Amino acid sequence: MLSQDTPVWEAFLQGDEEAYTALYRMHVKAMYRYGMSLVSASEAFVLDCIHDVFTEIWVKRSRLSTPDNVRYYLLRALKVRILHLLQRQEKRHLPLSQHDFDELWSEPSTEEIFSDQEELFNRQALVKKLISQLQPRQQEALRLRFVEEMDYSQIAEILAINRQSAQNLVFRAVEKLRGWLIPGCIIFFQDFF
Amino acid sequence: MQKPYEHYKVVDFVTDDAFLSHQLSPTEQSSLFWQTWLTQHPNKESEWHEATQLVEAVRLGLRDYARTYLSEEAENQLLDRIQTTNLASQTMLVVPFWQRRWLVSAAAACLIIAAGLWLYRGNPQPVSLYQQRLASLDKAVIEKINTTDQPQTTRLPDGSTIWLSPHSRLSYLKTFGQENRTVYLSGEATFDVTHNPQKPFLVYANELITKVLGTKFKVKSFEQDKDVVVVVLQGKVTVYRNEGQAQTDNRAEKGVLLLPNQQVMFTRATEHFSKSLVEMPAILSTEIGESLSFEFEEAPIDEVFKKIEKAYGVEIIFNEEVLKNCQLTASLSEESLFEKLDIITQSIGATYQLLDAQVIISSKGCQP
Q1: Which of B1, B130, B153, B326 has its CB 3.0 to 4.6 Å from that of B301, i.e. a possible disulfide?
Q2: Nearest chain B Cα distance for residue A100, angstroms
Q3: What whole-number distance in Å separates Cα of residue B294 and Cα of residue B328?
Q4: DSSP 3-state assignment of A181?
C-alpha cells in the first residue's frame, strides 16, 4: 500500500489525466469517510473540500514531489482544507483550542456506558458506541491507525503533535476500550474464539 | 532493531506499528516474523492472541466508519466537477486566492479559440484558409495534428501551453517567439499564454485573428455553423477580421475589443461582427480581501447599479435624475446577473434591455 500508487502519482505529476482520475478513484472513498468523520454535519461541505484538494494538486502538479504515502498526503491535505475553511467561517468567534475541546469531553462512567446495553443488539453496535465515548481526538487517531492504516509519524503530522503523543493517544484509547470490554467480555468475546 | 516484545503487554502489542501492520495487511515477511517470534516466546502467546482479538474488536467498532458510503453517482459527479474546475483553471485563471499571487507572477494567460474545418461542411472548399495561410509562409513550420480522441498538450518555446482538441491542427514558425508570437489554428484549442507585452500573442483562426492583451481572461469560441464566436470572461482580448497579409498595420478600426463577460459572434456569410453579453455573466474575481455583498437595505438605486457594474464588468445605462428616488431592499447574492436585473427593475417599476454589450434601464422613476 505504501508504494503501489507511486507510479500513478508520478504519471499524474507529468500531467497524465488518466493517472489523475485513477488517483481520485483510489482515494476518494477514504477521503470522504475521513472528511465525514471530521465534520459529519455537512456532506456538501466535505465534497467541496475534496474538490478543492484535487483541483489544487492539479494546478500545483508541476511543483509537487512524490509523497511516501499518497493516501496520507491526501487525507492530510483534506484536513488542512477543512480546518482552513472552518476557521474562516468562524472568524468572529474566539477559536477553541484542541485542549478546550478535549476538556469539554467528560469521561463517562462504566455504569453509564453499559446502562443501555440491552438496546445494543450486537457486538458491532456496542464497540461502536464504546468508541464514540472516547475523546474525539482518540477516535480520530483510531480511525487513522486501524482503518486508514497510517503509521504514528503520519498520524502525528495530521494531528499536529509528535509521534510519541500520537502513539499515546492510540494507546490510551485501546487501553480504555479494553477496560470497558473485559467486564462484559464473555458476552461478546466468545464468538472470537 | 528488535523491539523488546518479550516485555509487551496486550495493549502494547495493539499499539505497535509492526504488530498492527501485520494484523491489518499481513505480508509473507511479517507472517514469518511473528510465527518465528511466537515459537520463540510461547509464554507470550495468550497475550498476543488477546491483542489480535482486541484489534478485531476495534476494527469491528470502526466498521461503520470504514464503510461510510459514497455512492458511485456522487463519486462520478464530484469527479465531473473537479475536471470542470481544472479545465476552467487552465483557461480562466480564476483560481483560489491563495494561488493567485503565484499565477500573477507567472503572468500566464489563457484562451480558447475554436474555428473549425468542419465549418465548411455544407460549403466545401478545396483549400481552407488555414492551408492557404500555411502555404504563404516561406519559413519552416512546426505543425501539430491531433488525430486522437483526447486533447494533446504542446508547450511553446515561450512557456505557453496549448491543449489541442481532437481533429484539430496547430502550426507555428520554427522561429516562434524570436520576432513575434503567432500560431495558426484549425479546429479548437485551449491556450495558456505566458504574458509578454512586448510580443503580443496572436491566434489566426480562419477569418479571425485573436490578440491577447492582458493576463486575466478567457476567450472561448464555439463552433456554430457559419459562425465563429469568441467569449471573454476575464481580462481583455481583441479580435480582428483577418484582411490578408497586406493590411497587417491597419487593423485597429476593424477590430473588436472584448471586455469581461462579453462575446463577439462573427457571421461568416455576412462578415458581420456582433458584440453582446455572454449568456451567463460571471462575477469577476475581486482583489484579495475585497468582499462583494449583494445584500441591499434601502439602498439608493445608483449604488446598486454601480455595484453590479463593478462586479460583472458590464455597463449599465440609466437616467440618474429620473431614478434618484428609487431604493432597493433585497438579497441578491445567489442570483445570476440577469435574475438580479429582473428583480431590481421589477421592484422599481422599470424595464431593461440589452443593446450590444450594454444594459439600458427604462423607467418613469419612483415616488419620493
Answers
A1: B326
A2: 25
A3: 11
A4: helix
B350-355 β-sheet, strand order: B315-317, B358-363, B350-355
pLDDT average, residue stretch B153-177? 83
SS3 B193: strand
User: B70 and A175 in contact by Cβ < 8 A?
Assistant: no
How far apart are the C-alpha atoms of B47 and A178, rounded to whole Å?
13
Q: Which residues on chain B are in Cβ contact (under 8 Å) with A167?
A: 15
Interface contact B36, partner A, CB < 8 A: no
A 88-117 residues with CB < 8 A to B = none
A174 vs B11, B21, B75: nearest CB: B11
Instruction: Please provide residue B88's backbone torsions phi and psi, each rounded to the nearest 5 degrees.
Output: -65, -35
For residue A123, the chain B residues in CB contact (below 8 A) are: 57, 60
Cα B104 to Cα A3, B94, B295, distances in angstroms: 36, 11, 30
Q: What is the CA radius of gyration of chain A?
A: 19
CA dihedral A64, A69, A75, A78 (to 10 degrees): 0
Band (pLDDT 50/70/90 cuts) for residue B140 is confident
Phi, psi of B240 (to 5 degrees): -115, 155
pLDDT in tens, B74-114: 888 899 888 888 877 664 433 333 333 333 333 333 344 44
CA distances (Å), B222 to each of B74, B119, B331, in order? 29, 11, 34
Is the separation of the CB atoms in B179 and B198 below 8 Å? Answer: no
**Cα→Cα distances A13→B104, B154, B314, B329, Å:** 22, 16, 39, 50
Write the residue in A24, A36, A145 that is nearest to B82 by C-beta: A24
Position with higher pLDDT, B341 vs A68:
B341
Among residues B266, B290, B318, which one has the least CA distance to residue B114? B266
Instruction: Give A29's contacts (C-beta < 8 A, 6+ positions apart).
Output: B68, B70, B75
Residues forming a β-bridge with B350: B363
B143, pLDDT greater than 90: no
Residues with Cβ within 8 Å of residue B151, at least 6 apart in sequence = B163, B164, B165, B166, B190
* Distance from the A58 Cα atom to the nearest Cα atom in chain B, whole angstroms: 7
From the centroid of its chain, how far is CA B292? 21
- CB contact at 8 A, A81 and A49: yes
Question: Cα(A118)–Cα(A109) distance, rounded to whole angstroms?
Answer: 17
Q: How far is A171 from chain B (nearest CA, A)?
A: 6
Q: Dihedral through CA A165, CA A168, CA A172, CA A178, nearest 10?
A: 150
Tell me the nearest-neighbour CA distance from A99 into chain B, angstroms: 23
Query: Whole-angstrom Cα distance, residue A18 to residue B367?
Result: 62
Which position has the higher pLDDT, A156 or B358? A156
Cell numbers that stand for A155 in this block: 498520524
Cβ atoms of A45 and A85 closer than 8 Å = yes
> What ipTM was assigned to the predicted interfaces of this complex?
0.70
Residues of B in contact with A72 (CB under 8 A): none
